[in-house]
Write a structure and sequence with these properties.
single chain; about 140 residues; mainly beta; four-stranded antiparallel β-sheet; four-stranded mixed β-sheet; about 10% helix
Amino acid sequence: MQKLVLSVLCLILFACGNKPADKKEKNTQYTVEKTSIEFKEKVHDFGRLKAGEIVLFTFEYTNTGLHNYEIESIQSDCACVTTYFKKGAVKPGEKGIIEVEFNTAGLVGKEFKTIEIYGNSKELKHLAIFAQVKNDLLDIKN
């Protein structure tokens, strides 16, 4: 019984230990070096808005790493959030921006939306926006 348990443990250790430990993301076209970015602001409060308003905010970041930074995609938890960013590399030490458009049509009350930035940063980056939305068509007490 001990030999069986030991054999299974060895099999698990060897199966999990064969992955390369480099910090490069493999792609069929090219290899992308991981880098670091820092946002000037990670959360923005739009304050009080009326339903139907469309507001914009620009998040600014700096490439603080050693390699070029490129955004692959940006996703939000709501179709009411649209993002805009420049394709291409942001070199080390340079700044980049992500513009966020928030459409409050059909929303009411306290709204909190998250945004995930997928790129070659060492960790997944998150941004958030929030607002208090007044909707005359829907009267909800907060």
